[in-house]
């Protein structure tokens, strides 16, 4: 058996104390004759698995940030409590990954220093709790937010090549403590098992790029045009959503379409509002406390005009960007009122921006009257009908007859043997693959995907050839001149070969050096 690598007693003691919670020197530990047992090895393996588990959750946590505002809104509807839960998620995840990472680094250093891996029982309990917390998070994600699994698959198109390099690098570094352990252990069966597992994993990693696909693996001259931006309720990161201020900010952001939601008041006036209740985006609880829980359509237009539709934006800060608003923008936000559809159409006409909207609630008994009232306002507004994009499916044929110039946008994919070909579709970004996007583009079908906030996601969809995206973060996506990364396939092939060769030689060097 080889002698342990050189490691000063002070260093070994500093490593041993926090890992084993044994506040004695490494020399005294050695005199006791303590060795790493099979049970200790099992706990090290468990620690390694916990680290990987929390690392995967960290990846998921970063990916779901694109859609986390939806989760905040969901919690508010359920509990009437507004909080940016993304900060809670990131802080909790950072604590878990930091804890498991520090323990793993300590264990690997102890192994290299030839010290026993005696994990303290308190660490064992905390590791089990970590697994339970992360497992509960994954379970909740699968039950309440299953579409995020598809988001994760899409994210691999953006991160796959870089994850491959990172994992190969991490597994290569693991060769050093592994070689130290193999040469130090007396169990032949354990040696063979560890080496077989390690070699299998490395071979799989070396061949992994054969299964990695990304629309951004292309030549620069093949890159499709940059997708147009559709402002989701305007610019909700810079102004109160569904207000005239939000619309004007969207114009300043080079947004081509203002996406909003329309409801109709009790006296027949269409107005902009997303939620069925007014509590989240107005001060209805202060003005009409006894009616605050009523549906938005139960209020007449005179009542709606009394509500403040902007102060909540400064008080609740739905996005971190609210903190950076100028004094002028803050004052303007406090003056916002619920706009009527007529006011929004006039602003869109003057700004030469298109408007796309849903008509809510779809299950209302007077929905046809809502359609009639909305159509009447559109036709009377004088806005060019090609600037109006109609999303609601209810009574669509009636809309086509009364306003044939309005652009019909469908919230579904095309069907086989479609009588009337679709020209515009509006879908969640998780619902279309890169191949489908390319096919629709070849068939001259405009594809708008929502809601796209993160640059990595915008980059993948840009490379795929999507026509436009609905976004909360137009101020961020506007500044992107090209995707985050664009790499010719031949260049990626060369990087793959170099990384794999360097990794193999490093592993070989580790086993020869420590022999």
UniProtKB/TrEMBL annotation:
Residues 227-481 form the GP-PDE domain. The chain crosses the membrane at residues 41-65, 85-113, 125-143, 163-183, 195-212, 493-514. Its main location: membrane. One of its GO terms (cellular component) is plasma membrane. Keywords: Glycoprotein, Hydrolase, Membrane, Transmembrane, Transmembrane helix. SUPFAM superfamilies: PLC-like phosphodiesterases. Belongs to the glycerophosphoryl diester phosphodiesterase family. This is GDPD2 inositolphosphodiesterase. It comes from Neopipo cinnamomea.
């Amino acid at each position: 058996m080889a002698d342990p690598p050189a490691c000063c007693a002070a260093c070994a003691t500093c490593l041993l104390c926090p890992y084993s919670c044994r506040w004695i020197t490494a020399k005294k530990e050695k005199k006791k004759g303590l060795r790493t047992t099979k049970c200790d090895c099992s706990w090290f393996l468990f620690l390694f698995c916990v680290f990987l588990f929390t690392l995967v959750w960290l990846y998921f946590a970063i990916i779901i940030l694109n859609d986390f505002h939806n989760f905040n809104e969901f919690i508010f509807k359920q509990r009437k409590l507004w909080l940016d839960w993304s900060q809670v998620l990131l802080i909790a995840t950072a604590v878990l990954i930091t804890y498991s990472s520090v323990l793993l680094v300590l264990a690997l250093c102890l192994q290299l220093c030839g010290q026993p891996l005696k994990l303290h029982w308190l660490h064992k309990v905390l590791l089990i709790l970590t697994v339970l917390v992360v497992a509960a998070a994954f379970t909740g994600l699968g039950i309440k937010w299953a579409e995020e699994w598809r988001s994760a698959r899409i994210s691999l198109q953006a991160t796959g090549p870089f994850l491959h390099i990172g994992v190969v690098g991490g597994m290569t570094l693991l060769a050093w403590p592994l070689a130290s352990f193999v040469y130090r252990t007396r169990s032949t069966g354990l040696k063979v098992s560890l080496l077989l597992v390690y070699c299998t994993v490395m071979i799989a990693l070396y061949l992994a790029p054969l299964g990695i696909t990304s629309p951004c693996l292309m030549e620069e001259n093949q890159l499709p045009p940059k997708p147009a931006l559709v402002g989701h309720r305007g610019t909700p990161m810079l102004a109160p959503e569904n207000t005239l201020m939000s619309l004007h900010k969207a114009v300043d952001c080079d947004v081509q379409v203002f996406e909003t939601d329309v409801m109709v008041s009790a006296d027949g006036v269409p107005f902009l509002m997303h939620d069925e209740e007014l509590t989240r985006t107005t001060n209805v609880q202060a003005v009409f406390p006894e009616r605050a829980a009523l549906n938005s359509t139960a209020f007449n237009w005179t009542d709606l005009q009394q509500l403040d539709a902007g102060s909540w934006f400064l008080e609740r800060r739905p996005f971190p960007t609210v903190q950076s608003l100028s004094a002028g923008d803050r004052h303007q936000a406090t003056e916002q009122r619920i706009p009527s559809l007529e006011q929004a159409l006039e602003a869109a006409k003057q700004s030469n921006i298109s408007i796309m909207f849903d008509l809510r609630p779809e299950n209302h008994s007077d929905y046809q009257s809502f359609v009639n009232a909305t159509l009447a306002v559109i036709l009377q507004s004088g806005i060019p009908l090609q600037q109006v994009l109609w999303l609601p499916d209810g009574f669509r044929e009636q809309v086509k007859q009364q306003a044939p110039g309005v652009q019909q946008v469908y919230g579904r994919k095309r069907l086989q043997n479609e009588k009337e070909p679709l020209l515009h579709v509006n879908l969640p970004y998780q619902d279309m693959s890169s191949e489908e996007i390319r096919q629709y583009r070849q068939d001259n079908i405009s594809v708008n995907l929502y809601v796209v906030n993160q640059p990595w996601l915008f980059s993948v969809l840009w490379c795929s050839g999507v026509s436009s995206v609905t976004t909360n973060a137009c101020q961020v996506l506007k500044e992107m001149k090209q995707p985050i990364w664009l790499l010719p396939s031949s260049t990626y092939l060369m990087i793959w070969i170099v990384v794999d060769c360097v990794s193999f030689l490093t592993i070989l060097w580790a086993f020869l050096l420590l022999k």
